[in-house]
Amino acid sequence: MNRIVVHIIFIVAVLGTGLLIGINNIPGEWYQSLAKPSFNPPNWIFGPVWSALYVMIGLVGARMFLDHRQSVAWRFWIGQMVFNFLWSPLFFGMQQIGLALVVIVALLVAVTGFIVVSRRQDHVSSLMFLPYAAWVAFATLLNASIFLMN
Fold it and tell me: Which family, according to UniProt (predicted)?
């Protein structure tokens, strides 16, 4: 299959799934009623940030699929997708702040693991995951703060 087509498929699949999960787990009154830390960003920022990250995640996924399908990095990529897609339904849908915190910590471990193990085989992909790691680290701090405050 053409490499460009694979990249497009991955971007559409990751972004589309992320958007679908987001649409089905919109923060509502419950989330608005929670005590939040002073560094909590406005709600409108999450959609654009996650959309940009999902495009990068899709690009990296395509690179891994095409060139490193048998690698530990590929397994970390799959793992981080599972944790990523579990978080919103747990936090917003089921309102399980503590369980969502466990999942987002696992997500941060998987993203960091990906960066570490992919560095030698695909340095570009490991660099592309740095903004994702930073955002997930921030989201982990936010999730932990909301958990402790509520």
Answer: Belongs to the TspO/BZRP family.
